[in-house]
Amino acid sequence: MSARAAARRMMSARVVCWSRPAAAAEEIEGDSLRRWLGSMEIAELRRRFTASSSELLDLLEFARTPRASVLRDLLEQGRSVIGVHLIDKGTGQPEVTTSPEEKHTAAEGTTVRDESEIPVDLRPVVGEERPPRLGVFSAETNEMIALVPTPSYGDVQSILDTGVPTAGTLRGETLELVLAPETAA
Length: 185
Description:
Elements: H1 3-25, H2 32-38, H3 42-49, H4 53-63, H5 70-77, E1 79-83, E2 85-86, H6 100-107, E3 117-124, E4 134-138, E5 144-147, H7 150-162, E6 166-171, E7 174-179
Antiparallel strand pairs: 1-7, 2-5, 3-4, 3-6, 4-5, 6-7
Helix pairs in contact: 1-4, 2-4, 4-7
């Protein structure tokens, strides 16, 4: 077993161990744990588990969608698509109206609420504890209009960490990232 695989296995064991009591209280069992954790926003994970920054990063990594290839798709195909949580303009909070499975379907382009295309920028939300939420901001107004959901957090953060220039478009609850023209082959 590689050192990376061993570290991932240890992280998973830690997350399962200290999230088990809360999961049991919600009657969450086995394979549903990843989906349950993935259904929560970062603020809820931080509050519910009183998680430190490193523990929160472990939770985010554990909740990551298995075999997701957001960064790989972007680099190999020049585009990647993910489902996001829209921000309710009245409350300023995320609208979590669909299940992770429906978000995945929306990311595939089959279910969206609004087909208008909004040019967007993707960046961490300023002024939040580390790790901050990843916001989707209107390129025109600079208003945060959506959040990257927990299962996609690690993959999207990887894109931001690489510094690869991207351009984003939001259509309903679907965020499309493409390589910026100066980097496309």
